[in-house]
Known about the structure:
Elements: H1 2-26, E1 30-38, E2 46-55, E3 61-65, H2 67-70, E4 81-86, E5 92-101, E6 106-110, E7 137-142, E8 150-158, E9 170-172, E10 184-186, E11 192-199, E12 206-210, H3 216-219, E13 229-253, E14 260-267, E15 272-284, E16 289-298, E17 301-308, E18 312-314, E19 320-322, E20 326-352, E21 358-360, E22 371-375, E23 381-385, E24 399-400, E25 405-407
Antiparallel strand pairs: 1-2, 1-4, 2-3, 3-6, 4-5, 5-6, 7-8, 7-10, 8-9, 9-12, 10-11, 11-12, 13-20, 13-22, 14-17, 15-20, 16-17, 18-19, 21-25, 22-23, 24-25
Amino acid sequence: MLRFISSAAVIFLAAETMADELTDHVRPALVTVLATGTSSGSVTEENTVQGTGFFINKEGHVATAFHVIKQLGPIIGGTLKLTVFRNDTNISSPAIIEFQQPDRDVLILKIPTAGVPTKPLTIANDAFNKIQPAVTRLRTAGFPFGFPFKEDSGVLNSFDGPNGPDQWLWVVQMRFQRGQSGSPVFLDDGQVVGVAKGTDDTEANGYIIPMRYFPLTQYVSDSAGQGRKVTVTARASTPELRVQENVQQFSDSSTSCSSAQRERRIQLPVGQELDPTSISFSVRNGSFVSGISIKDISNTGFTVAYVLKPQCFTTPFGQTISLKQANLDMSLAYKSRQLVETSGEKVIATGSLGVGDQVYLPEDVDIGSVKIDTIEPSGAVRTTTGNDLVTTGGANGLGLTVDRAIKF
């Protein structure tokens, strides 16, 4: 009995020591991602959201989930501010968006390299082939709200996520809390296989984004292939927020000998959104008007209300005469925003790719416009286009999988 307890204690202490070693390996590479932005609704206010992320290289690139910043909702252009807090400390760095793919919930940030940990987390490569549902145990660590640091573990349930557009997600027996989005999900040896996305309605299962959807060949040298330098470009539609300055002028007059209350509605064209903080006006012949106000402000327009003063005079004979003239000349200035789809060529991936590597194409990319330039170790250059690729195998040893991935 005593030997059994002692043996069990030794096993427990050994497992605890292994867990501590894994924590010591993972924790220095973790960061808290803080995003702030000014909402663009009728009431403007600064919103803040929080998530977790982790370093994937020594150059200051941080992997996290795109919905961490999407939670801000519509914001005024230019107000998005990203800050990365390193290893749950008060050491912070400004961050910029280096890569984003919203349809796969993928986001990579970049911070200045000073103070970046020398050992970012390792991305699993060959280990992917050994992962088995209902067998492989996965771990996670991050910074949920209310906790300075939290670890969890659970078995991989399935490679098939929920039905619908999120079917590409993996399902795990873990519950991710608010603030854990973007946390790494890794094996017992610390190799990262995915990124935490969220929890289902039953809170029994969690969903993770497989690391294969991140452009690892572009940012992680460990994923380099066999010396072939590859650049994948394509035409894609990119939403661009354009700000337009508008000036509108109008005149008004009255023949009444009493005050005249007037309103003028300014309605924006379809597709444009008003910046309510930008409305201003100027008046000529201001002595003929009073009580100017801006009201009924919405995303699509606003109303100008004003009062025209009486325009009468009395003759020496006691006769009242009304005047008809332009009593008011007003100039209105305001800004509007419009999301415009712009099409152009962009780099999808670049780096060293070997046999078996894959590059996933975003949903907004036209496959026919894809161009793949490959420089072999010998220096020979060859080009493959998207039209050369078919789902069962294509030209130059390349093929296109059913889930829009170029397989090398």
